[in-house]
Amino acid sequence: METASGTERNDPVDPTEPVALYDTTLRDGAQSEDVQFSVEDKLRITRRLDELGVDFIEGGWPGANPKDEAFFREASRLTWHHARLTAFGSTRRAGVPAERDVVLKGLLDSGARVATIFGKTWDLHVTRALGISLEENLDLIHDSIRYLKARMDLVFFDAEHYFDGCKSNPDYALAVLTAAHQAGADCLVLCDTNGGCLVDEVTALTRRAKAVGGALGIHCHNDSGLAVANTLAAVAAGAMQVQGTVNGLGERCGNANLMTIIPNLMLKMGRRTALSSDQLAQLSSVSRFVSELANLSPQKNQPFVGDSAFAHKGGIHVSAVLKDSITYEHIRPEQVGNRQRVLLSEQSGKSNLLFKLTEMGLDEVDPDDPRIRELLQELKELELRGYQFDAADASFELRLRRALKQLPSYFTLRGFRVIDERRKGADGGKLLISDASVQVEVGGEMEHTAAEGNGPVNALDKALRKALKRFYPQLEEMTLSDFKVRILNTGGTGAMVRVLIESQDGKDRWGTVGVSANILAASYEALVDAVIYKLLKEGVTPPG
C-alpha cells in the first residue's frame, strides 16, 4: 500500500469505536466578533465542558498573550474529571531548531500534556505565506511533532487547508500527512480552514487521507453553512476525532457546532462518544451557559438546544403533537435537555390553549368551557392589534388566569406621571433626568412614590416597585433584563408600538408585552404584567 500516492482506502467504519470530542471554544471560538472571554470565563467554561464529558479542551495558545498564559497557570490547578487540557501552537519557525523555538517551548511550559500544532498543507501557503520550499515545510512539521512527542503524552497535527491543498496538489497534501504520521502524531486532523468545501469533497478526501495510516480528525469552518454536515460526513468516512465549538462560535461564519454534532453522532448515527445519556441531557444548559458568558443572546432557532427547536405555533401542529410528539419532533427534547413549547398567535387553535392549561397545572378546566373559546378569539384580536405572545408567555398566562377568575388582585393603579428634565450637571454639562411618580392602592391603602431613572421607562419601573415593595418585598429580587420596542405601523410619531420586556429574579426569566400608541403606556402595561407574574409564581397572597 502506498502512503502518499492518493490511493483511497474504503475500510468499513467500526461504529463501536468512540468518536473523540475536541472543543476549541476557548481558542477558535474566542475569535468570534463581539466575543471576549476573561480568564475566569474560560475557567468556568472549562469546568462545564469537563462535566459535560468532552475529551479534549483546547485552552488557547500559550505565550501568545498574557490572558492565555494566566489561563494555563490556573487551569493546571483545576481538578479534572474527564477532559484533557490541550495547548495550541504552530510548527517551529524556518531556520530555528525545535529545541530553541519559542512556540514549542511555550507548549511545553504550559502545563498541558496534550498539544495540537498546525502546519501548512496547501502548497500555495508554503511558497507564498511562509516563503520556503515544499521540502523544508515537511521538515518543520516532522521535527516539531517528533520533538513534542518525546516530551508530551499526545500530539495532534492540524493539517491546515488540507482540503484546498488536496485540490491544488494532492500528492503534496498527502506528503504532509505522511510526514506528520511518521513523526508520531497521534491524530491527523483534516482542516477545512476556509470553510468552502462541499460534503462530497470532504467524504472523498477524508477517505483518501486514510491511505496515510493513523487516526484521522476533522476541523471544519462554516463559511458555506456546511460545517456540521462536513464534520458528520468525515466521521462516516473514517474520522475518529471531531473538533468544534459550543454554539458554533468562531471567526468569520464560525466553526462546526458541537451542540449539533454531538446529538447527531449519538442519536442519529448511533456512534459512541464519552458522553452518557445524562450528560447529553446537559447540552442545552451548556449552550445557554456559554452564550451568557459570551454576552450573546442565545440563538433561538439553533437545532436541538435552541428555545425554538421544539416550539410549535400552528394549531394543526399542536393538535398532532399532543396526540404523539413524533409527528413534528425528530427526537424527544429531554434527550438534549430541552423542552417542548407551544406558542400562541393568530395561528393558534384550541389545542394550543389546552396545552398551555396542562402546562400551568390547570388541566381540570373543561375543554368545552366557553371561556376558552372566548379567550382564543380575544388573543387573535389582540395579535391583530400588535400583541405578540410567543415571546411573552407571562402576559399570556395572566390573561388566561384572569379569564378563568384565578388571578388575585394584587394592586390597583390610581395614576402615574413621568417628567423628563434637562439639568445642569456639577461639571457644567447638561444632564437629562427622568422622574416618575406612581400612585397605587394595595389592600385599601394608598401609596404614592417617586423615583429618578436613566430614562422614562427605567424611572417608571423604579417608582412602581418602590411603591409596592412595602407590601411585596419579593419584588426586591426582580430586575428588568431586556427591553425591546417595535414600531407596528407607519403612522409616524403617532404609530402603535409594541414593548417586550424580559424580567428575571435569579431563578426564572419571563416575558411580558404591552401595546399602545404611547410608548410609556405600552411600557407600563408590560412592567405591571412582569410584577404581577412575579407575585403569582411566588404564590403571594394580597394583603387585606
Notes on the protein architecture:
The protein has 544 residues and is an alpha/beta fold. It folds into three domains: 256 residues, Aldolase class I (TIM Barrel, Alpha-Beta Barrel); 105 residues, 2-Layer Sandwich (Double Stranded RNA Binding Domain), CATH 3.30.160; 61 residues, Double Stranded RNA Binding Domain. Helices cover 37% and strands 20% of the residues. The strands form four sheets. It has an eight-stranded parallel barrel, surrounded by nine helices. It has a three-stranded antiparallel beta sheet with strand order 11-12-13, covered by helices on one side. α1 packs across α2, α6 crosses α7 and α16 packs across α18.
**What is the general shape?**
elongated
Q: Looking at this structure, what is the CATH superfamily of the largest domain?
A: Aldolase class I
CATH class of the largest domain: Alpha Beta
Number of helices: 18
Task: Give a brief rundown of this model.
With 544 residues, this protein is of the alpha/beta class. Helix content is 37%, strand content 20%.
